[in-house]
Amino acid sequence: MRVDETLESGSQPISFIDRLTSSEGFLLLFREGMTLVEDAAAYLDGEGRDDAKALPRIVSLAYAAESMRLTTRLMQIASWLLLQRAVSQGEMTRSQAASERHRVKLSQQDLASDPDVFGALPEKLRQLTVHSIRLQARVIHLDELIYSPAPHAPGSTSPVGLQIARLRDAFSSRI
Question: Is this structure's pTM higher than 0.85?
């Protein structure tokens, strides 16, 4: 089938977003997110408790605040990843996942406001925090790709469609 026949037949373009959550890249992201959740939980329930006890009071308060922010961030990421996996496995539709009832509210968080205090936190907590912020940025980017409205309304011609039409016109006029 030629390109112009495909366009004339009214077939829809391939949606990469629909295929995203069943891709190897998503599976890697899913594993990374769940591993990070497990690593953070293990640290905060084990070695992190000992680390926190050895900190000066002001840094100990920052540790408590940062660990709560880390936990919240990771739960948002895990919820989003599990929701996308449910869509890819057919347990729910993309529109159900996008509904207000199921939608995971993601908000970009930066590092703690005071870099000196953040620098005084235990190394492992800092590593987990930075990793989670980077992962969160990737998840937010994917969420925007999946759930943001299409830049072109249905029926309007996309830039690619315009180029294909120009090529079709250029070659059909020579025949």
Answer: no
Which of 72, 63, 68 is CA-nearest to residue 105?
A: 72
What's the rounded Cα separation, in Å, for the pair 137 and 106?
Answer: 9
CA distances for 155 relative to 8, 57, 158, angstroms: 13, 61, 9
- Look at residue 59 and give its three-state secondary structure: helix
Q: Is residue 66 part of a domain?
A: yes
For residue 85, give the CATH number of its domain.
1.10.8.930
Per-residue pLDDT 10s for the chain (175 aa) are 444 444 455 556 555 566 676 688 889 999 999 999 999 999 999 999 999 999 999 999 999 999 999 999 999 999 999 999 998 888 988 888 887 767 777 877 777 668 888 999 999 999 999 999 999 999 999 888 887 765 554 555 677 777 777 777 767 655 4
SS3 content of the chain, % helix, strand, coil (to 5): 70, 0, 30
Residues 6+ apart with CB under 8 A from 103: 97
Question: Residue for token digits 């329930």?
Answer: 45
Domain count, the chain: 1
CA-based radius of gyration for the chain: 23
